[in-house]
Input
Amino acid sequence: MRDYADRLRRFTPNARLFLLSAFSIGLGSSILSLFLNIYLLRLGYKQDFIGLMAAVPPLVTAFLSVPVGLLSDTIGHRRALILGVALSGLGALGIVLFTQAEPLVLSIRVLGLGSALLQVVSAPFMIEESQESERTHLFSVQFALQTLAGFVSGALPPLFARGLALAESTAPVYKMTLAVGVGLIGLSILPLAGMRPAPRANRRARLGWNLKTPTGLVFKLILPNMILSLGAGLFIPFMNVFFKLQFHISDALLGTLFAWSAVGMGIASLAGPPLAQRLGKVRTIVWTQVLSIPFLVIMAFIPVLWISALAFVVRYALMPMSAPIYSLFVMERVAPEDRATVNGWSTMAWKPALCRERLADIPLERHGS
Output
């Protein structure tokens, strides 16, 4: 713990401001992801439209990750982060202001573009703003803050329902909840605006597709993400359906299970840096992912609720524990001018799982369908 505290004290002012911004936008985004589908349902939209709205942001990110990576390496990562927050806030505001289908779809596209910028630029920016001795800690703390942000957002609808003297599951209550998310996303731009501009040394001279990093190395770096994406897309999106159909648990218990799994993931990610120091980055990545596999098998073949729930939480903690370490590993091995571009390729490689996750996260009217 003393070592961890010492590494945290070494973070640059820009890195601290970035973490503050990341927590704010993580909290706002988690509110949107938790309640947008339900809000659309209360507005009277059917599952096909809700499915479209859920799939658009990851699809936009998948198609635009590489172009926005090129753009970020050209204009600078701080400017790209500010642009990403501005677009995310604008898209989220449109979702709250409009109720017609066409403006909602346009707004979710703008939100997806902003999310693409933020996802692609965050890792290159953190590596610019840190020394090798504290980089692993910075990546892990950022991942933990964004993960833990989702744990506190579920209490908002009951608060608004009591304050407005309305039933909890009504459109105005969810509209107010989403408005809080928009406000938090908007506030996240303030720490970014207070940062000192980074030197131009590692930026591209012009927008172009040619990389200084060898193509073969780039392929090796993004291939694991692609394979993990294809595998994770087969089961991650259906965990909520699995618990609902296999054990017939209530929505409240299901929400509690997923909330605690997010807490486990956030806490476990903070254990990544000490493990990486002791085992090395590659061994930490491999072993945390390998050790998570038996818990998937337990869920499949031991149909006891508490055992499956425990296996789910442990697996949810182990598998993503290495995500920030993997991201850092990739960034350290590419040319500084290519970092956002390569991270765009890596982000695009992960999107098949995320797109399926969003499609499977549609609220089900008939759980047997």
The chain has one domain: 2-360. The first helix runs from residue 2 to 9. The chain is about 80% helix and 0% strand. The radius of gyration is 20 Å.
